[in-house]
Design a protein that fits this description.
Number of strands: 6
CATH superfamily of the largest domain: Alpha/Beta hydrolase fold, catalytic domain
Order of helices and strands: EHEHEHEHHHHHEHEHH
Shape: globular
CATH topology of the largest domain: Rossmann fold
CATH class of the largest domain: Alpha Beta
Number of helices: 11
CATH architecture of the largest domain: 3-Layer(aba) Sandwich
Largest sheet: 6 strands, parallel
Helix content: 40-55%
Number of domains: 2
Amino acid sequence: MAAETVVLLHSSGSSPRQWSALAGRLAASLRLHAVAPDLEGTRTLDEDVDHACRAIPAGHAVHLVGHSHGAAVAVKAALSGRLDVRSLTVYEPSLFAFLEDPEASPKVVGREITRLFETGEAEASARLYVDYWTTAGEFDRMPAEKRARMVARMGSVVNCFAALFHDEARPADLARLAMPSLVMSGRRSPGPSQDICEIVAGSLPNARLHHFSELGHMGPVTDPASVNAVIEEFLRDVARARKPERRAA
C-alpha cells in the first residue's frame, strides 16, 4: 500500500501556518504525514497545482485539504490526474468561474480589490478584501502589525483573483472525481460562497456537505478547532472504509 500524505492548502490571505494545529492532530491521531506548501499567488491555478505537487514525497498517495483559494487549488489538483487522490476536503472553494452571473458579489468585489491595488491603494484594497470575507470594519479593528502583513500580501491576493476568474474548470468536470469528498460551508459566509459549495457538493459523485451554523468564510482561521475536528473525523471515516475486512477463520 502506498504511503499517504495530507496536503494542506491555505487561503490567499493566509499562510501555511493556518493548518499547523490540524497537521499536529492528524499526525497524532491518524499517523498521517502532512505538507503545507506556501501558495505564492501565481496567475493560474495550474501553476499553484505545480507548486503543491512539488511538495509531495514521490510515490505518495494524497488527501487534499484546502480553504478558499487553497480549496480551489485542491479541486484543480484532483482534476489534474497527476496524483493518487484518496480524499478531497474543501472549505468554501473560491471557484468563482462556477458562478454564471458576472455581477456575483465575489466577482464585483474582486475586480474592485484589483483596481485599488493596481492604482496604488494597497491599504484600501486590503480593507475591502478583509471586510468582504469577514465583517464591515474588521480590517480597522486588526492590530497594526496584522494590517501591515495583510497589505503586504495583497499582490498575491490579486494574482489569486486573476487565477480564479480565468480558470476553465466547470462543475461538470467534477463528475470525474469519485474519491470520498467533504465540502464545508459557513452559514455566515457571503451567499455566493455558499452557492458554490452547493454546486461543488452536488457535482461530486461521492461528497458530503457540512454546514457550520456559526462560522463564516474564514472559519478555518477564526475557529480552527471546530473545523479541524470535522476534517479529522472525515479522514478517520475514509481510513475505516478502506481497511480490509477480516475473514472468519
